[in-house]
Amino acid sequence: MSFTVIPAIDLRSGRVVRLKQGDYAQQTTYDADPRQLARDYAGEGAVWLHLVDLDGARGGSLDNLAVIEAIASDGMRIQAGGGVRSEADVQRLFDAGVSRVVLGSLAIREPEQVAGWLTTHGADRFTIALDTLQKDGAWTLPSAGWTEAESQTLDDLAPWYAARGAKHLLCTDIHRDGMLAGFNLDLYRYLATAVPTLAVQASGGVRSLDDIRAAREAGARGVILGRALLEGRFTVREALAC
User: Fold this and answer.
1) Could you confirm whether 31 is annotated as catalytic?
2) So what's the pLDDT on residue 226?
3) pLDDT category, 229, cuts 50, 70, 90?
4) CB neighbours of 166 closer than 8 A, spacing ≥ 6?
5) CATH number of the CATH domain containing 47
6) Which of these is catalytic: 53, 131, 173, 177?
7) pTM of the entire structure?
8) How many domains are contained in the chain?
């Protein structure tokens, strides 16, 4: 079974940032050029890069498209999202060189429309992002940069998308995002059983190489690495080797 290590770069106003638990008021800004950072990750062996337009995720427009296009032009395979609200937005990302478009809010609010795109463009060109927050015993699915509540749950939508041919699922435990508390392994074990046809990408909380090994053992098919790389807890090369 293949397993993919995917460094992440979150963008806000063209700069590299990280949020804690998706809270825009808890932002850390890093003194790094996003394009050079992507080149550094590629130089260490990363094939894929995960880009998030945080301005777009909250506001609904592709604010950082120029930065995404510049990074894609250097040759890495990019999955990118944040601000995708229409098929025109999807096409703009494809035209910018993005290999896979990440669909979050729209995947929750307009699943029938997204299922149509899986057929039209090919399921391998999309990552369905069902980022989740456990509340009153249910895995809820906040949208719009995790700022708005929705009625759908992870239990509703993950199997629904699997039945319609989706291939890639990104699932972040929002409570752990940016907290360096380790992955929620029970979440990924559950998904490996509930939706075995989906290649699940684990995200949120990685702090060590042991967390990467544990996510793989829990059934995840890839890991998204953000803050731990930015703060030098380990390198992309070490993550690939483990």
Assistant:
1) no
2) 93
3) very high
4) 118, 123, 126, 128, 198
5) 3.20.20.70
6) 131
7) 0.93
8) 1
